[in-house]
Design goal:
Among the domains are: 154 residues, no CATH class; 83 residues, Pdz3 Domain (Roll), CATH 2.30.42; 79 residues, PDZ domain (Pdz3 Domain, Roll). It has 11 helices and 22 strands.
Length: 456
């Protein structure tokens, strides 16, 4: 399959599922409550471009490529944004959204974010049921990169990390995730060595991945020191030109041992367009290769190789309860890291550009990178992250989003206590203001996406 077609299909799959599962949530709750749905735009907002009608619902594609939407009969607050409504059509009053009690309207608004969160939980749950969960390994150091952050801090192979950045008895996952947000910052770490606690300070190495600034410790967990096997070699790429073959075991690059695939990728990217001396083991024989990485359209340096079966991660089988716990934990880790990154930005510790906020261009880049490296199965964890963030983001009290609609319902409830109401004209202005705000946010994230793309 041509590379560009693979990327297009991956983008359509991830964004299509995440967005449409959200709108399906609104749709199904409205139908369950007996409301009539006027339109289901599965791509875009604004005026209708194309579609078909089934029953009372017009399934359509709309002009402005900013998500999707569901429009209910009787909900005219967004009609100015959607190209009007079906005027003149007789609709039974019990099926009109506007005449329903506020608690039913609230349920419709919550339906979208709810389905996004359900999807975000269902993906790791399914992975845990069918593949098991990663084995919980003790935080024992298996390898230390020479002159890396861990080496400079005095961390040694065999050390057990018992405290990291104030967290006692952290897991490897917690250590790695917290490090991502602490590049070039002094981090207190306590290791257990020969039965004694040793207090050290480590400064995570600053790296740039996809335009995002991250931190790494330059060490490898004991359980991840594995045989790095080449699974596939892309034709016409530097690795193939240098003579690398599927099944080769990577021994070293420029004299440095390669304990993990992650270390291989990092070393190639850091070398950029400088020649690399790579030693591989091929059927028991030592082979020395020289290659120069090629720069991709996204600005990354790659040689055209993918990992093989020697990189399988140990996993434990779990039942329904264990899978549910893994699903909740996976989503909580995403929320915790996202919240910590935003807190750093508001505190001035991390710039918006470094904060990892991705707009359309950035998301497409991430999807393209994942599908090229891990195939379509690798897209499911990414879909989990995007769906979860979409669900949470839509609960923000911004007009036009679900959170904004919920806020309007709250305002109407308060006004009703004093015998007052919000006019349709005011509701339309609120929605237009929300659209303006979203367009501004869209422009901002697009700016940072493009700035990261061109290295500005």
């Amino acid at each position: 399959m041509p590379d560009i077609l693979l990327v297009v299909l991956a983008v359509v799959f991830v964004l299509g599922v995440a967005i449409n599962i959200h709108e399906f949530g609104h749709f199904i709750v409205a139908r369950m409550l007996g409301m009539r749905v006027e339109a289901f735009s599965f791509f875009g907002i604004g005026p209708r471009i194309w579609g078909f009608k089934k029953g009372h619902t017009d399934y359509r594609i709309s002009a402005i490529p900013l998500g999707a939407y569901v429009k209910l009969y009787g909900d005219e607050a967004t009609s100015s944004l959607e190209g009007g409504s079906s005027e003149g059509e007789e609709v039974p009053k019990p099926e009109l959204y506007e005449l329903r009690p506020r608690w039913q309207k609230l349920l419709v608004m919550l339906g979208g974010p709810f389905m996004n969160i359900v999807l975000a939980l269902a993906i790791p749950f399914g992975i845990a049921i069918f593949q098991g969960v990663p084995s919980v390994q003790a935080p024992i150091v298996g390898a230390v990169k020479t002159d890396g952050a861990a080496d400079k801090a005095g961390i040694k192979v065999g050390d057990r990390i018992v405290a990291y950045d104030g967290t006692e008895n952290p897991t490897w996952m917690r250590i790695q995730e917290d490090t991502l947000l602490l590049p070039e910052k002094e981090v207190p770490i306590v290791v257990e060595r020969a039965g004694k606690r040793v207090s050290l300070t480590v400064v995570p190495t600053k790296i740039t991945d996809g335009g995002n600034t991250l931190g790494v410790l330059d060490l490898t967990p004991q359980g991840e020191v594995e045989t790095v096997v080449i699974g596939t070699v892309d034709e016409g790429k530097p690795a193939a030109a240098a003579g690398m073959k599927a099944g080769d075991i990577v021994v070293s690059i420029d004299g440095k041992q390669m304990p993990t695939w992650r270390e291989v990728v990092r070393t190639i990217r850091e070398a950029k367009d400088s020649p690399m001396d790579i030693v591989v083991n091929r059927d028991g024989e030592r082979k020395e290769l020289t290659m120069v990485a090629a720069k991709t359209d996204s600005g990354k340096f790659q040689v055209g190789i993918r990992p093989g079966s020697g990189l399988s991660v140990a996993r434990d089988s779990v039942g329904v309860v264990g899978a549910a716990g893994f699903a909740v934990e996976s989503n909580w880790r995403v929320l915790r890291l996202t919240g910590k990154a935003f807190a750093q930005m508001f505190a001035g510790e991390r710039s918006v550009k470094e904060g990892g906020i991705a707009g359309p261009v950035g998301i497409v880049q991430i999807i393209a990178q994942v599908v090229r490296q891990a195939g379509f199965l690798g897209l499911f964890p990414l879909l989990m992250v995007i769906s979860l963030n979409l669900g949470i983001f839509n609960l923000l009290p911004i007009p036009l989003l679900d959170g904004g609609q919920i806020a309007v319902l709250g305002i109407e409830a308060v006004l009703a206590m004093f015998g007052m109401t919000l006019s349709m004209a005011i509701k339309e202005k609120i929605q237009l203001a929300g659209l303006g705000l979203i367009l501004i946010l869209f422009a901002v994230v697009m700016y940072f996406d493009i700035a990261r793309l061109i290295g500005f």
